[in-house]
């Protein structure tokens, strides 16, 4: 929900920009800011007629990461998808002039719909629950079947080698994070369990999925979707900050993670008891059903490669958890919550190893057929 502005901007300067560049917005405007947790400050604009819009901008001040907060990239992919069947907010323009509100920003449509934070969709009918999942999967498949060049995204990312680049990045991160020492105890964070074995497995071309290069969201999950207020359909995908050209298996593996983790342990972070086979609420589809729905629209079958993809996703998560543990060790992240999240490194790696064993077994059986 939008509330008081926590990071003020020059409204009169913004109004002057709007008057010259965005005819659909009538000044004067009022401004609210959306909730905490947004890496890029996000504001709700209400114009003189009561119409609502959204503005996303880079954070003020010096940025810690040069690769993060690229609102220009967010705008580019949302704008590229305007005339496709992938539901995204309508765009109204990108401003790269820092003098207007202090940083680059873009303006898009405000989607008046439902954002659901629990992926088992509590409080809806079984039929609606099933169709809401179906449309989430269908929407992702529509994105992945697009040819980047056909929508002006041929230079949005490298067309090949996505997973090898990810392996290089996360291997370097894992090695660097492992040596961080706790400022009080002097104890090192340590390596992700079976780290070297896992890197060797994922790096083996014989085990890797067929290389693909499609537009990917980078963080595709239920709470990054906006659903119609009364109908079980997606009206928009949000938070495109991590979008690139990459392997579609990564998005699909991220979407089905509630089934992946819950199958091993219902107490782990990102697990959901409702996704345990004995707890499925009526209408919640199976993991296999989601993969089948995806195949029907995307035009390729991820089933033979999904075991590798979900294992890789868990390895990546274990390195991310290690990074949080490293930041806690040096007290860059000092909360008790950060400590708890960092402790997920070893359980995540254990699940990853079990998934790798399953992937190996699946590949071995397929080779015998």
Automatic annotation (TrEMBL):
Ranges for domain Aminoglycoside phosphotransferase: 30-265
Keywords, sorted A to Z: Kinase, Transferase
Listed GO MF terms: kinase activity
The UniProt record lists the keyword Kinase: yes
Q: Which organism is it from?
A: Lophium mytilinum
Q: What is this protein called?
A: Kinase-like protein
**Record's keyword annotation contains RNA-binding:** no
């Amino acid at each position: 929900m939008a509330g008081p502005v926590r990071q003020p901007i020059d409204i009169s300067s913004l109004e002057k920009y709007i008057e010259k560049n965005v005819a659909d917005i009538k000044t004067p405007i009022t401004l609210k800011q959306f909730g905490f947790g947004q890496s890029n400050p996000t504001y709700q604009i209400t114009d003189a007629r009561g119409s609502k819009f959204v503005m996303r901008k880079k954070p003020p001040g010096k940025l810690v990461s040069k690769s993060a907060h690229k609102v220009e990239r967010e705008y580019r992919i949302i704008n590229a998808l305007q005339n496709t069947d992938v539901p995204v907010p309508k765009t109204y323009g990108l401003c790269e002039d820092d003098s207007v509100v202090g940083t680059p920003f873009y303006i898009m449509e405000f989607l008046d719909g439902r954002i659901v934070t629990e992926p088992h969709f509590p409080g809806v009918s079984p039929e609606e629950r099933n169709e809401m999942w179906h449309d989430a999967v269908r929407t992702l498949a529509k994105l992945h079947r697009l040819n980047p060049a056909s929508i002006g995204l041929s230079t949005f990312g490298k067309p090949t080698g996505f997973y090898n680049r990810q392996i290089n990045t996360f291997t370097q991160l894992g090695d660097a994070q492992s040596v961080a020492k706790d400022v009080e105890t002097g104890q090192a964070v340590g390596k992700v369990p079976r780290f070297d074995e896992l890197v060797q497995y994922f790096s083996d071309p014989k085990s890797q999925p067929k290389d693909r290069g499609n537009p990917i969201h980078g963080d595709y999950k239920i709470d990054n979707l906006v659903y119609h207020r009364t109908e079980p359909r997606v009206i928009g995908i949000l938070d495109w900050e991590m979008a690139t050209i990459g392997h579609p298996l990564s998005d699909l593996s991220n979407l089905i993670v509630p089934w992946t983790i819950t199958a091993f342990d219902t107490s782990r972070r990102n697990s959901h008891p409702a996704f345990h086979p004995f707890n499925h609420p009526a209408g919640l589809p199976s993991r296999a059903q989601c993969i089948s729905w995806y195949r029907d629209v995307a035009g390729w079958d991820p089933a033979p490669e999904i075991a590798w993809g979900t294992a890789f996703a868990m390895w990546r998560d274990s390195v991310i958890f290690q990074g949080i543990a490293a930041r806690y060790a040096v007290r860059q992240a000092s909360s008790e919550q950060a400590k708890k999240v960092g402790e997920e490194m070893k359980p995540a790696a254990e699940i990853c190893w079990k998934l790798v064993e399953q992937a190996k077994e699946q590949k071995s059986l397929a080779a015998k057929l």
